[in-house]
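USER: Study each token:
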Amino acid sequence: MERLRVAIVGVGDVGWRHVGVAQANADFELVAVVDPSDDVRDFAAAQKIGWFDTDIRKMLRSEEHTSELQSRFGISYAV
């Protein structure tokens, strides 16, 4: 089974829980986080995943995530 690629938007108290669930579940692959804090930026760098400060549109426009949405779900969108 192919793992579901996950991005967490907003990594506050609850967001960190979501990060933990995504990392602990073999069905998920955490690929990006969206949050302006230095701690989240450093975490993303350490985990070698995408980091985006505050603009989710940047993440959605990134080629990797766009092609994933289009190929996997047939989603086309404009941001």
